[in-house]
Each structure stands twice: as structure tokens, then as C-alpha cells.
Design a protein that fits this description.
By secondary structure, the protein is mainly α. It has three helices and three strands, in the order H-E-E-E-H-H. The protein has a three-stranded antiparallel β-sheet, sandwiched between helices. Helix 2 (72-153) packs antiparallel against helix 3 (162-193). It is rod-shaped and about 140 Å long.
Length: 199
């Protein structure tokens, strides 16, 4: 039974209202018995209780007179076990529902974090691609500048003054330093993306 259900007048309703077992040895002699399609000569109604609250009724009927009196201790024990099984089943259902709700809440809570994390990964990849592309683009003209400065420094295009050689030497040294800086940036980018490992 469920809370709030109204019973017809009879043994079951009386057992629920009184929260006590009712054994009727002869139904023809008890006015509380509700006549059924299949006539019964004895009936028992035992409330199923959890923490003093009736959660159901075990109602047995028999065509034999006084069929249940001899089974009273066993029926009372049986109803206690049935009550425990029903309550445990209800509690398992509540725990299962709670777990499902908790999983849904965790999923919803972490959904935004997952989306932000994917966006950060995408931005990090864009940054790495940008650094790599810019570094490669800078190396090409830098190599040309250093190459032509070395040609001029060696005098292949004509004699140079001391001041001109000093200026070309500065250009060569600074272009080599800039090349090293670009290589360092590329190495850092490769380390971040895991393409090379630090030893």
C-alpha cells in the first residue's frame, strides 16, 4: 500500500488503523470481514511496518476455518522480513536516484570547464603555430642579410674602410645573435608542444 490510500471497511483496514495483526479464525463470525467473490473461512491481515509506519499489509485468506493460528510466529517473522526488504528496496532506489542526480550535476558542472579547456588548447595550438610560422619567416631574410654582410666584409664587392668593416662585423654578429634567439623561441615552442624533450 502507499500512504494516503483508503481501504474498504474490513480486516485489512482495521489492521492498518490499529497497526496490529488480525487473525480471524472464522470469517462467518466476524462482522469486519468484507465478502469477496471467492468466499474465505479464515483470514489474517498483518501490517508491514517500518519505524512504526505501516507501508503495506500481508492479507491471507483460506477456505479452511482457523487455518493461520498455528503459523502466527512464522507469519509475524515473515512480515518483518518483507518490511525490511521493501524498505531496503526503497532505500536502494533513493540511493540510485541520488547517484544519477549527482552524476548529472557533476557532468553539467564540468561541461563548461571542458569547453573552456578545449578552447584553451585550441588557442595554445594557434599560438604555437604562429610562433613557429613567424620564426621561420624571420630566419629567411635574416640568413640573406648575414650572408650578404659576410660577402661585403670579405671584400668581394670592393675594398672597405676600417669603419665599414667594423659596421659590417656588427651586422654579422647581431644577425647571428638574432638567429640564436629565433632558434631558442622555436625550441621553446617545440618543448611546449611535446615535439622535442628536454634533456
Amino acid at each position: 500500500i502507499t500512504p494516503g490510500v483508503t481501504f474498504r471497511k474490513g480486516i485489512v483496514k482495521t489492521a492498518v488503523e490499529n497497526k496490529e495483526s488480525l487473525y480471524v479464525p472464522d470469517t462467518k463470525k466476524d462482522k469486519r470481514v468484507v465478502k469477496l467473490v471467492i468466499p474465505a473461512r479464515s483470514e489474517v491481515a498483518i501490517p508491514l511496518k517500518v519505524k512504526g509506519k505501516v507501508i503495506g499489509v500481508l492479507d491471507l485468506e483460506s477456505k479452511k476455518v482457523d487455518n493461520y493460528s498455528k503459523f502466527k510466529p512464522y507469519l509475524n517473522l515473515l512480515t518483518k522480513h518483507i518490511s525490511m526488504v521493501i524498505e531496503n528496496s526503497r532505500l536502494v532506489g533513493e540511493v540510485s536516484d541520488f547517484n544519477e542526480r549527482l552524476q548529472d550535476e557533476i557532468y553539467q558542472s564540468t561541461k563548461e570547464l571542458r569547453i573552456k579547456n578545449l578552447e584553451l588548447q585550441r588557442l595554445d595550438q594557434l599560438k604555437s603555430d604562429f610562433v613557429s610560422s613567424v620564426s621561420h619567416e624571420l630566419r629567411t631574410p635574416l640568413t640573406s642579410i648575414a650572408g650578404y654582410a659576410k660577402i661585403l666584409y670579405r671584400g668581394k664587392q670592393g675594398e672597405l674602410t676600417v669603419d665599414q668593416k667594423d659596421s659590417l662585423n656588427i651586422i654579422i654578429e647581431e644577425s647571428e645573435r638574432l638567429t640564436r634567439l629565433i632558434n631558442d623561441v622555436l625550441d621553446l615552442s617545440k618543448l611546449e608542444t611535446g615535439r622535442i624533450r628536454f634533456k
